[in-house]
Design goal:
Blueprint: H1 13-22, E1 26-30, H2 34-42, E2 47-50, H3 54-57, H4 69-81, E3 87-91, H5 101-113, E4 119-121, H6 127-138, E5 143-148, H7 154-157, H8 167-183, E6 187-191, H9 195-204, E7 209-212, E8 220-223, H10 225-228, H11 246-263, H12 281-286
Parallel strand pairs: 1-2, 1-8, 2-3, 3-4, 4-5, 5-6, 6-7, 7-8
Helix pairs in contact: 2-4, 5-6, 8-9
């Protein structure tokens, strides 16, 4: 097996900033459990995001709003146990950073202290968000920003759609990116924005941009792992490239297993154990125990 270069080098925030300065692309994917994290880490993925998208992908919710801090801590712990190289980012779920600055910092610290993450991600760039970023950085908690389409705002936005297609909104997103950098984030996700806007933002920032539906000019790319491998048969946005179709493959695999069980083909002798004695076990079980 050909393994990626630098596979043993632990990815840190300074390394990501160095990759930006050298023009090296950053790879990022989501993971929500131990086996997926092991796969991504072994494949050389630089950043693993334990996204609140787990609410839709793993827990079956219609959106990310119901995801709790306990959900996120639980899944981040599992990912951390399967990761050695990648930088792990824990996604702050809805209403875990909205009530007060003190509570928000406390929730963010749990990702590092309890769950084994190396950074947290928060959505938005309003004035309260910028103040929170500064507070988190002051508490030595690395922060990844997230602007453009922000899924936690779905009830306000009404639908998932591209942001920044009109000039005024593009200007706002550009300003948000610059404000987040000044506040101290080490990188920023640009979700569902025109590639022209993403290119300009990437050129102007000294921190890495990570695109999802933001074109090829970002410093890195991120996708939901389950989308990448075709794990589900649900709707896929335009920006998703399916590199496999595990859904159909897994259905066929389970169908084959079921047919073999029903026909008696599985398990056969190859998948069975044997009594250690050459004597007939049935006879031995029927015999009376000897008296001492």
């Amino acid at each position: 097996m050909i393994m990626p270069d630098k596979k043993n080098q632990k990815v840190t925030v300074p390394i990501l900033l160095e990759m930006k300065s050298k023009g090296e692309k950053i790879t990022a994917l989501t993971a929500y459990d131990f086996p997926t994290a092991k796969i991504l880490d072994a494949a050389g993925v630089d950043v693993i995001l334990v996204g609140d998208s787990l609410g839709m992908v793993v827990l079956g919710y219609d959106n990310t709003i119901p995801v709790t801090m306990e959900d996120m801590i639980h899944h981040t712990k599992a990912v951390a146990r399967g990761t050695r190289r990648a930088l792990i980012v824990g996604d702050m779920p809805y209403f875990s950073y909205h009530v007060s600055e003190a509570e928000s910092v406390r929730n963010a610290s749990r990702f590092l202290k309890e769950a084994g993450a190396h950074a947290v991600k928060i959505e938005g760039a309003s004035r309260p968000r910028l103040n929170l970023v500064r507070a988190l950085v002051e508490a030595e908690i690395p922060v990844m920003g997230h602007i453009g389409l922000t899924p936690q705002s779905i009830l306000h936005l009404g639908q998932f759609k591209v942001r920044g297609k009109e000039l005024e909104e593009a200007k706002r997103i550009m300003k948000e990116a610059q404000n987040l950098e000044r506040a101290g984030v080490f990188s920023v996700i640009l979700e569902c924005v025109p590639l022209e806007l993403a290119r300009i933002i990437t050129d102007k920032l000294n921190i890495p941009t990570i695109g999802i539906g933001a074109g090829p000019d970002c410093d890195g790319q991120i996708l939901v792992f389950h989308d990448l491998v075709g794990y589900l048969d649900t709707y896929m946005p335009k920006f998703v490239k399916k590199y496999a179709n595990l859904y159909e493959s897994l259905i066929q695999t389970v169908h084959t297993y079921s047919e073999e069980v029903k026909s008696g083909g599985f398990p056969d002798d190859r998948y069975s154990y044997h009594f250690k004695s050459d004597q007939n076990l049935e006879v031995l079980l029927k015999s009376k125990p000897s008296k001492e």
